[in-house]
Amino acid sequence: MAAERSVSGRAAGHPAIRATHAKTLELAREEEITERATCVVGVSTSIDERAIASLHGRVELAIEAGGLAERVRGRLNPAFRPGDPLVVRRAPAVTRDALVIDADRAAADLPRSFVAELARAGARIAVGISLLAEAAGPGVLVVRPAPGGNPVDAAGVAAALAAGERVTLTADLAAAEARAAIHAAHDAGHTVLPAPGLSPNAAVEAVAGLAPGAHVTEGARAETLGRRLTAIDGPARGAVVLDPGTPREQYLPWRSGQRLEIPGARGRTAAFAVAPEDPSPAIDRARALAAGGASTRDVAGALQDAGLPHRRAYALALDLTADTSSVSRPEPRTSR
Q1: Would strands 87-89 and 191-194 be described as parallel, antiparallel, or unpaired?
Q2: pTM for the full model?
């Protein structure tokens, strides 16, 4: 395939290169490695990472040494930022610790004669990443919350994503049309990411397409998250961020009725936020609880379990239990 854009770089060989890893391939920035680095195929890597981050879509990674050349194809990781690991993964997950994902080859797939050249001390390795002119893959929607932002061109966003483009949506998440555009991107199979620099809470709200102030639960164990989300009653949607603040940071959209699969969940931490697609059923159930004499705390808990933000859930619970709960309300201040 003809390349539309490309970035070139260089690396060096090293006697410790083994290239036996079956799932990954890495271009190390470090000068020295040990034989335990089974995925490394080059050291002292130097390449314009900002130029790489400007690419989007299917790419081909070319590695040349000693007159031999090998190529690996995959999807440029849409979450990649300069400074992140230069790792190629066969897995399709969008995480911060990869340059290319959904790759067709890993280190172990390289011919041993080629690996011998990479392991030669003083070997010069040429590296190139080219954008392939293939059919459009999934688009990428980067969400940047902006209170009072511009109106959302939902049709334009959908068309650009369908063409496989990377789109930045700067919008007020309190606006229903902004959240609808994010939900539509999820439903169409596109990747939705938060803009760089957001706090974990704001990032989860952005990816989930939730109004600001949504209740975000942090520090959850990833292996138990599926059960917790399954227990949510009624139609709801949200997002999960795995390993927040680490290089393995990963965002997963979720909605009720969908199975949440977290590869290697044990030991991973998560933050998540959900909200009912239509809060009316949750409010009706809470009203029935209040009528049955449930406490304000229990009613608020039921609303939070349904996905309502903490403050909204408690304020609504106070209103619903005003005539049945013994919870005292603060008296309005008066001047004397």
Answers
A1: unpaired
A2: 0.75
